[in-house]
């Protein structure tokens, strides 16, 4: 079926800038792909289109079998997103209240909400700060809270935009372990942007490299390293 899959051949023009110029690749269910490229390459712009918050100016895009910006609400039910640079959670609410609100937005039955919450809270060791407002959390805690929120509704695709940026060494290892576990045990498709090559080496077999809005390389990390 289409769940967990992603097909892109998409273009996005801002006034004069063609930020994304026919970025073309396919991701199969259960893959863990590193999406790499220098600053300004077009990664954020493509991810915004994949998550349905930005409308392309051309091309095709299919996520979980749907067109994300046309069916934004349904798309949101099957994806999770974490931005290392900023939280998606309500800043002033206790973390647990944000999670409860999200559970309602996703229309999770109480049993599923509690089961998923308990599992994620334990995996990510979130209990010690579950009742603190997000603005009081350290970066590492905030990222763990964001991960619980992103995985609460068992999404088929998880987008991670610089998920280890600013984390200390221990927090980076925990983050990678968690992502690997979600991919292995739940079969979650993962698309990960990062500037940390260790993230790529520990997590991803496949890398897609873009620059100037085009795919430069799509293949195994080992082959890419052999080439350069
Ligand atoms: P990356 O995430 O790889 O750093 P972006 O997708 O953020 O790249 O940016 C791609 C290009 O599009 C850059 O040249 C950037 O300046 C431009 N760009 C991004 N967002 C906008 C916007 N809202 N308006 C105009 N240009 C933008
Ligand atoms: P990111 O790449 O993670 O989105 P940036 O700092 O590059 O972070 O961009 C922050 C915001 O500014 C984004 O929403 C992006 O779309 C927008 N942006 C980026 N480049 C430009 C630009 N050249 N002109 C206008 N907006 C831009």
UniProtKB/TrEMBL annotation:
Localization terms from the record: Cell membrane
Topological category with respect to the lipid bilayer: Peripheral membrane protein
Keyword field contains Nucleotide-binding: yes
GO cellular component: plasma membrane
One GO molecular-function entry: ATP hydrolysis activity
Keywords from the UniProt entry: Antibiotic resistance, ATP-binding, Nucleotide-binding, Transport
Chief location bin: membrane
Signal peptide: none
Occurrences of domain ABC transporter (ranges): 1-228
One GO term (biological process): response to antibiotic
Highest taxon listed in the record's lineage: Bacteria
Protein name, as recorded: ABC-2 type transport system ATP-binding protein
Organism: Micromonospora phaseoli
Taxonomic classification: Bacteria, Bacillati, Actinomycetota, Actinomycetes, Micromonosporales
